[in-house]
Amino acid sequence: xxxxxxxxxxxxxxxxxxxxxxxxxxxxxxxxxxxxxxxxxxxxxxxxxxxxxxxxxxxxxxxxxxxxxxxxxxxxxxxxxxxxxxxxxxxxxxxxxxxxxxxxxxxxxxxxxxxxxxxxxxxxxxxxxxxxxxxxxxxxxxxxxxxxxxxxxxxxxxxxxxxxxxxxxxxxxxxxxxxxxxxxxxxxxxxxxxxxxxxxxxxxxxxxxxxxxxxxxxxxxxxxxxxxxxxxxxxxxxxxxxxxxxxxxxxxxxxxxxxxxxxxxxxx
Length: 268
Prior knowledge:
Oligomer: single chain
Family: Belongs to the nucleoporin Nup85 family.
Keywords: Coiled coil, Membrane, mRNA transport, Nuclear pore complex, Nucleus, Protein transport, Translocation, Transport
Shape: elongated
Largest sheet: none
Subunit structure: Component of the nuclear pore complex (NPC).
Subcellular location: Nucleus, Nuclear pore complex
Main location: nucleus
């Protein structure tokens, strides 16, 4: 049974084992499981051999996970996610999402996140696991924030040039992009998958919007944000939670904007 022990002999080995009625299936599974998977092409060839063979269903899952782990070790996160999703290794997807966020935090850069989930833009149907869906939406939110910052810088240039027409146009764009950012922020803090490590950043971003342009939040968004705050309040000791000045200020700011929204329009 040592015919499949040598790397690269898998095709010859499995053809040979196919003629062994008693131990052939076991030997084939063993040979395929031991085979190195340095490239996507080779992985596809092994999967093609397994396709349609019920006795190799678990071997297929093993192959996709093995290839995913190879990619993950090289920090090719997009490929790792692709193979994990293809093999329905959803627990591994969740774990990798956590690792990607941790690397972003350690490197103080969103590059790992962008490289990992950019391919999801053309394949949104793959974002089945809720944690991955949250990560994709978080990246969208960060891209919208980049657009906002770019518009703000452009508006500062327009003010220096005293170009009123351009300034009005950019103010309109700024309002639109701010509303889009608020929508995504609402989705992020409404999701049960919001990572604990990003709670502080989400609250800071919400506070920034309420301070700079509170009207970008609709009433539903405000109540969702308040519900999120109350959820965090219950997760901590109440006194400890509100010892943070920013949390207390955020709650007060939300309450103020909520009250304004109940006033007749002419009185605001």
